[in-house]
Amino acid sequence: MARVLTPRAEDFPRWYQDLIAKAKLADNGPVRGTMVIRPAGYAIWERMQAEMDARIKAAGAENAYFPLFIPESYLKREAQHVEGFSPELAVVTHGGGKQLAEPVVVRPTSETVIGEFMAKWVDSYRDLPLLLNQWANVVRWELRPRIFLRTSEFLWQEGHTAHATEADARAYARKILHEAYEDLMATVLGIPVLVGLKTARERFAGATATYTCEGMMGDGKALQLGTSHELGQNFAKAFDISYSSAEGGREHAWTTSWGTSTRMLGGLIMCHGDDNGLRVPPRLAPIQAYVMVVKDGEGVGEAATGLRDALRDAGVRVALDDRTDTAFGRRAVDAELRGYPVRVEVGPRDLAAGNAVVVRRTDGSKSPTAVADVVGAVRAALEADQQALYDQALAHRESRTVEVATLAEAIEAAATGWARVPWSAVGVAGETEANAQGVTVRCLLRADGSVPDSEDEPDLQAILARAY
Fold this sequence. Notes:
One of its GO terms (biological process) is prolyl-tRNA aminoacylation. Helices cover 35% and strands 27% of the residues. The protein has helices at residues 12-22, 39-58, 72-76, 79-85, 111-121, 166-187, 234-239, 263-272, 300-313, 328-338, 348-352, 374-399, 407-413, 427-436; strands at 26-28, 35-37, 62-63, 69-71, 90-95, 98-106, 130-139, 153-163, 193-197, 209-216, 222-230, 242-244, 250-252, 254-261, 289-293, 318-321, 342-346, 355-360, 366-370, 401-403, 418-422, 440-445, 461-465. Strand 5 and strand 6 (98-106) form a beta hairpin.
C-alpha cells in the first residue's frame, strides 16, 4: 500500500491529498478553490446530512431555504459582521449584461438575509422561538484552499433562531452544540471532540459568544468541526427583529446561529485514515459490508448473492462486488482505500469448507467464518469497530495533549500536539504572541471540562494548538 499512498508519517499533507484522489472522494474544480465531490465522497456527506438533519429536527428546528444572493447593504447593517467577512466576499456587480444598481454578495453565511425575513415573520412573543435551518452552499474566497478543509465554495447546514430572552437563546445554542454536533461527532463520526468557548479574538463576526467542537487530527493539529453562536441582540437591532411582549411592550429578540460543513469529511479522513486509506466508522458508512467474489467457482456467485441478501435483510448497508474480470487484489486495495468497515470474501476454496472470510478494516484481521454465521459476525464487528475507532482517536488525543504552566511551554508543545494551560497564563496579550507563531487558542474550558459562559470566569483552562 505504500506504493499507493504516501505514508502519513512521511508527509501527512501529501498522504491526505493522495487518499482523496485514490479513494475517488473528490477532485479540484475548474475555478481555484472549488471542489467536485465525487459519488464516493458525496455518499458519506449524505449520511452525515441525514444524521445531522435528524438531530436538528429533534431539537425543534425546521428546514427552509434562503437566497444565494444577498444585497450588499444587508451586510453593512451589522458592522462587525461585514468587517469580519470582507476579505472573503465574492461580489456580483453585473447581471444580464448590465451593471447592477446595487452589488450583491454571494452568501458567505445567511444571518443578514434571514434576519430580514425574521423581522417580517416575528410580531408577537407567540411567534417565538423561531427555529430555522437550511442546507445550502456558501462562498468564502479562500486564499489557501485544501479540499474539504478550506474551499471557496462548500456545502453546509446553517441554523438561525430567534428567542424572547437571552437565557432561551443561550440554552438553544448549547442544545445544538451538545445534542446535535457533539453527539453526531462522537457517536457517528467516532471523533472525540473538546467542546468549549472561543476567545473574543476567535469569535464569529457579530456574535457575543461562540462555542466550538474541536477534534485532533492524526498529525496532532486541531480542526474546528462545528460552531454554535450566541448573537445577542446585534442582528435583531440591525434588522429590527422585534416582538410584542406578553406585557404589551416592544422588545428585540435574541438570536443564534450555528453550522457544520463538508469540513467534517476532511476531519473524518485525517482523524481515522491510515496508510491503507480511509477508515469509515460503521454507523456512518454508506457501505458497511462489502461482499466480494474472489474468483469464479461452483456456487460462489450464488453464495455471495445470498450473503448480500441476508446482510441486507438484517439491516446492514451492503454491496456486492462480483467483477471477476478485475484482479481481486486490485479490488481489495480499492475497498481498503474507501474504508468499507467489513469485507466478506467468498472464494471456491473457503466455500468448499463451508466458509467465507470476514475482513475487518479497523484492525485488518481476517477470520474464516461459517457461511451461516457471517451475518452475526459482521454485525458484531460493526458494533465493536465503531467503538474501536473512537477509542483509538481518544487515546491518540490524550497521548498528544500535555498539561503546561506557561505560554512558552504551550507554544512549544503545540509543535506536536495540544497544550492545556491556565488561561490566566495566556490572556489577550499571550494569545497575540501565540498567533504570531502559528498557534491559536482553540477553546476555553472550565476545570471540570464544562463550557464556560465567559472568558472572564476564574480558573479557566485554554487549549492551544496549531490548526487547519
